[in-house]
Amino acid sequence: MRPCAVAVVLVVALAGLGALAAVRLVGQRSDDRADRSGSTWTPQTCPADVEVEVVPEHTCGWVSAPLGDSTQQVFVVVVEPPAPSDRSPILETGTDLGMAPDYAGLAPIAQRTGRRTVIVDLPGTGHSVPSLDCSDAESLGDAAAGSSALVEAIGTCRDRLAAEGVDPGLMTPQHSAAVLLAVMDAVGSERWVLMGHGTTGATAVEVAREHPDRVEALVLDSAVHVHDGWRARRSALLRRVASACAADVRCARRHGDVLARWREARRRAATRPVDLEGVPLDRELLDRAVRWLVAPVSSGPAQLPDLLGEAAAGRRGPVLDRFATALRLAPPLCVGVLPKCVTREQVVLGAVLSGVCPTAAGREPYVAVCARWGIGEQAADDDAVVGVPTLVLHGELDPYATAAEASAQVRRWVSGAHLVVARGRGHNVLGDQCARSVRNDWLAGPLDRAPLLPTCVDEDVDFP
């Protein structure tokens, strides 16, 4: 892929550490902040998955965050920039709901921005304790969303957690915002840049809403996950990819008319579906395959013609083979439901439910499982964040929210945010260098100005 493969086509203002490093962190805490939050920092030896993935100087530790009648032990990784800096540190909320942070992918933020970066395992995920792991439900694989087996397994997990004194209702985005504030207090800096990759960004917004004085800036990447309207988004996505493919000589020669391939794939899915290790690629599963493929930076819209070609021809190739493997290995409510879906060892189903149910409990595929998880829809806070400079990045072809949907949501969240739409890209556009350059430049300059567009603004879908 070319170095500046993301094309940013729209910018609008939406109206309205080893032991020594650990000692340094604790020493920065002021007693009044510690007394106010009740949080504490305890350094620990970094686990193997962090040590293998994180190269820059870093420190691991626990933040004990009182919440209700319980205490959550939140795992954090503190990554130092190349040179000491007195600029506000970055608090990184992770990648997407239910997933442990991609430490290797997030650690370079410190070097790219010149700011200390604190990566948090959100409550219920990764190394944080307690975990919302539901191994019985996760072992079901790609079970139907409303199946009795899945609902029963989720109920068994919920009952077990309750017997252990764990309340998943205390791990919703609103409650997780209080945990992030405890991390901010424990590490000790007064002002922060809050950064959310993917759907964890809503937690950062909650912190900024409740404590704008503590937030120097917000950076949100693909924070919106809209649960309705897929058919309209699908049509728009297919037309855009078809247009980009027709304009690319290699893609047009190889795939021809992408919309025609889509119609052929739909007809075959209805009459002679491709067999995916005993699972037929019917129309519903074909839709999920499109969402599964297009969202992540690792695949993205560029591989959609390959998927449709294999499905239309009725033969399994590299893309459908990967899709079949994902169906076999991933937990329920994951493939084509979450923006990024990997194996069950990385996606914690209980954490997904605690994150999603407050906004989606009344919508499929979450109705039955959220009811058994014990978390219903909660009234949204209508107060927008005011006075916090905010940069929002969104992929034009993100199958989980269009640019218009993202704009509307961000307008409700934050007054006066800068929205950058990355042309020809799906979910998590900060996975590409061009979008990162937009973020880095904005954070380096006056935060009250609109972000500058880099020279790669005209890049479209980059077909292999």
Automatic annotation (TrEMBL):
Domain Peptidase S33 tripeptidyl aminopeptidase-like C-terminal: 368-444
Residue span, AB hydrolase-1 domain: 103-247
Xref: Gene3D superfamilies: alpha/beta hydrolase
Signal peptide (residue range): 1-21
SUPFAM superfamilies: alpha/beta-Hydrolases (SSF53474)
Keywords: Signal
Name listed for the protein in its UniProt record: Alpha/beta hydrolase
Lineage, highest ranks first: Bacteria, Bacillati, Actinomycetota, Actinomycetes, Propionibacteriales
